[in-house]
Amino acid sequence: MSNKPKMVILGAGESGLGSAVLALKKGYDVFVSDSGPIREVYKDEFIRRGIPFEEGTHSVDRLMDAVEVIKSPGIPDKAPVVTKIKDAGIPVVSEIEFAGRHTNAHKICITGTNGKTTTTLLTYHVLQKAGLNVGLAGNVGKSFAMQVAESERDFFVLELSSFQLDGMFEFKADTSILLNITPDHLDRYEYQLSKYVDSKFRIINNQNPKDAFIYCADDPILNEALKSRKVTPACYPFSISQSEGMAAYLQNENLVINIKNQILDMSIYNLALQGKHNLYNTMAAGIAARILDIRKEVVRESFADFKNAEHRLEHVMTVHGIEFVNDSKATNVNSAWYALECMQKPVIWIVGGVDKGNDYDTLRELVKSKVKAIVCLGKDNAKIHDAFSDIVPDITDTSSAMDAVQKSYEKGRKGDVVLLSPACASFDLFKNYEDRGWQFKTAVRSL
């Protein structure tokens, strides 16, 4: 029987493996438990590193002697195994919380309902270009815990979902970014928007006056929530509709960043990321970079040559004058709104999947002005027909990426864009949004 304190890891994916490796390095007796099958790539690593694990079940008796449990963000807090562990008085934390204890790196932490990945990747790109020793982690990149275990970093840029934030208690961001708040994942928050808002605002927990809080001054839910909260860190708001008091703003088609009265400006037409939503993302990343005193020339170069993440408004190719764009990561209405908003060509819109209680009313004006045809990609498309059939008469149902692409191509003409921006989860026809995006791209390339 080991005398080492026992650490249990729930979930054996990227974060689970990283947490296990870090816990082992820090002297814990580690056990990994996953109720489903473990992917071979992770299983091989557990075996290679001598980390005991189980799959297909949670052996509750083997979990109850833990001093702490690190839970995958994909496992709900109300899952029976989590409830039992908490009832036994065992702390349950996230990988981010655990890894944060073991690094002194400066942490730039980014959350929001939409734009997290783009902003995280852009911020990381700027810091890399500046020559800083920086890691990329959280919801994107490699496991935060694994990087803390195996490499020394001076900076980390972390994309944090509400699920990850819910498992953070003592963790502190040096720079926090809150991009926006719109209703999403409410099934995890008892269908109460206030609880989802509370989750997002955990990003500023434990920050002190020397830290930074960067946020969008144009977001109504975010700004209403600010009125009832004590915000300790220094505030750096950004806006495209006002300039007074803003750390970043729009002026005569120039993006302006003003940190400590040091002005950086750049034409919006020179930005790699186009569209109003991406202007917000760029402002947030720029403020974070300038707070670190990264040179203006480096920031401008980074903003001009950045390439966005796969499955996020990703140009696939142009076939006979018809452009194909993969925005499979748009799994909610607000993400699809952003995608449609920045389209400058007539749109054939591929939409559908697992509806998360979508309200399509907010899309109707954009759809009416930009969309010439809709191709549904899902098992149940009735709600999409109901929402848009009066303004887009051309609506077609499909049940595979190949069929959706073929139907879209047949409807398209030179100068059109086929936009996969589903506004829905992918699990009716695909493994995940990545699988949906890959199948879309494969189908486009086979035209």
Structural features, described:
This protein is an alpha/beta fold and 447 residues long. The protein has three domains: 6-93, Rossmann fold (3-Layer(aba) Sandwich), CATH 3.40.50; 97-305, UDP-N-acetylmuramoyl-L-alanine:D-glutamate ligase; 314-445, Protein-Tyrosine Phosphatase, Chain A. It has helices at residues 14-25, 40-49, 60-63, 80-87, 95-100, 116-129, 144-150, 162-166, 193-200, 220-226, 276-291, 296-305, 333-341, 364-370, 382-388, 401-411, 433-445; strands at residues 6-10, 29-34, 53-55, 68-71, 92-93, 106-111, 134-138, 155-159, 175-178, 212-216, 234-238, 248-251, 254-259, 262-267, 314-319, 322-326, 347-351, 371-377, 395-398, 417-420. It has a six-stranded parallel sheet, covered by helices on one side. It has a six-stranded mixed sheet with strand order 15-16-20-17-18-19. β4, α4 (80-87) and β5 form a beta-alpha-beta unit. α1 runs parallel beside α7, α6 packs across α12 (296-305) and α16 crosses α17 (433-445). The longest helix has 16 residues, at 276-291.
Strand order of the largest sheet: 7-8-6-9-10-11
For the secondary structure, the number of strands is 20
The fraction of residues in strands falls at: 15-25%
What's the story with the biggest beta sheet? 6 strands, parallel
Shape: globular
The CATH superfamily of the largest domain turns out to be Mur-like, catalytic domain
Multimer state:
single chain
CATH architecture of the largest domain: 3-Layer(aba) Sandwich
Unreliable stretches (pLDDT < 50, length at least 5) are: none
Q: Rg, please?
A: 23 Å
Number of helices: 17
Structural class: alpha/beta
Distance between the termini: 62 Å
CATH topology of the largest domain: UDP-N-acetylmuramoyl-L-alanine:D-glutamate ligase
- Total domain count: 3
* Mean of all residue-level pLDDT scores: 93
The portion of residues assigned to helices is 25-40%
CATH class of the largest domain reads Alpha Beta
